[in-house]
Amino acid sequence: MKTEPNITISDQIQLALTNQIIRGQLLPDEKLRQDHIAKTFNTSHVPVREALLRLEARGLAVSIPRRGVRVAPFNPDDIFEIKAMRLALEPVALRYAIPKMTPDNLSMAKEAQRACDDANDLVSWEQANRQFHSAILVACAMPRLLSAIENLQIQSARHLLGTWRSTWEERTDRDHTAILNAITRKDSDTAVSVLKKHLQRLR
Amino acid sequence: MKTEPNITISDQIQLALTNQIIRGQLLPDEKLRQDHIAKTFNTSHVPVREALLRLEARGLAVSIPRRGVRVAPFNPDDIFEIKAMRLALEPVALRYAIPKMTPDNLSMAKEAQRACDDANDLVSWEQANRQFHSAILVACAMPRLLSAIENLQIQSARHLLGTWRSTWEERTDRDHTAILNAITRKDSDTAVSVLKKHLQRLR
DNA sequence: ATATTGGGTTCTGTTTTCATAATTTATAGA
DNA sequence: TCTATAAATTATGAAAACAGAACCCAATAT
Q1: Above 0.90 for ipTM, yes or no?
Q2: Closest protein residue to C17 (Cα–C1')
Q3: pTM of the shown model
Q4: What is the dihedral sign for C-alpha A79, A81, A85, A87?
Q5: Which residues on B lie below 8 Å from A49 (Cβ)?
Q6: What are the backbone angles phi and psi of residue A8, rounded to the nearest 5°?
Q7: Can you give the residue ranges of every domain in chain A?
Q8: Which CATH number applies to B76-200?
Q9: Which residues from chain B sit within 8 angstroms of residue A57, using beta carbons?
Q10: Which fold has domain A9-71?
């Protein structure tokens, strides 16, 4: 039994571009030219157009009709907005998730937390951090909510990697452990309030 | 000075399909065939694909690679999720909007409210209602937040028109006036709490 | 009757080609 | 020298053409 051979070319392009944008290999406001990208992926420009369209829908690119697509810019207002939205959505997701959480969900979260602590560069820490935040929420089983949150997390990550690029200090994230403990006790109130404080610290 | 001749064919298709989905002219799970739609718009199927892609991103369609796109289905879980997200996001937007609200914003909202009261069928009431809910929030000036909310409102509208299709009774919406009064007094707390109750009543 | 195979049809995803809008470069004028 | 216009180049958006996967339906086997 094979796993999803149904991945379209435009999916692959979208994934690759997403990562390049997150990691800052593509800079804010950088132009995304269709046939240039097409060449690097050995395709025609149509699948590229479709990938760009979806990047735009996810807030990672900005398009002006007939004038091309650019990597989405980043100003302080955007950071503020993203934080506000995460603060609005993630606590809700967490509250719905906790009662439905399975042992499997919990162990995934713990694993991600370990990966956070073990990370020794910003890129891999960020990946693990994002996995942690997703792992504690997936159980809510609300697809729109989860994908909205995922997009916001990606945009946060982009900001993080863009501004703190080189600086890296090992960190043990007390909030994460506190959240995990509360979840284990099924103590939604403290889990949610710690998560809120945690997100408030974002900048 | 012309207004936006930069509308692409795929934009027009997207708009038309959006309305057809909202109004229930396209039913949940109905198949959206590319060349069929292309024929009705006298285009090739490429712009149609792009329109479908964006409908998918907005939660109005569901696509399975190589197996086509369908109008997004609607089960009680979805309704619940949409309500939860609106409850999470709209109060936040309102709180940020009120301090920035201009007289123009306010009069737009009043106009929409009047249109609600004057409506004598469900379709036009729904349009006015949506305009009201947007008008009281635009001032927050948070584009991602606003477009997320707009999409949720569209999905609510779809549910509304889908289930209560024919029934129509004139209604004067007390919540709307209460919200407007609170906004006029710059009383964010009551405005937000009335909005929350108002959204809670959604089903 | 039910399940299964095969062939034909339909539909999606992609490439190739093209028209036209936008941008850049060059040229002429003040 | 700077501005404004025109020509050449480049890029986007759409059409046409095509390959291959999914679907349908009839004929065959169980």
Answers
A1: yes
A2: A44
A3: 0.94
A4: positive
A5: 50
A6: -85, 160
A7: 9-71, 76-200
A8: 1.20.120.530
A9: 53-54, 57-58
A10: Arc Repressor Mutant, subunit A (1.10.10)
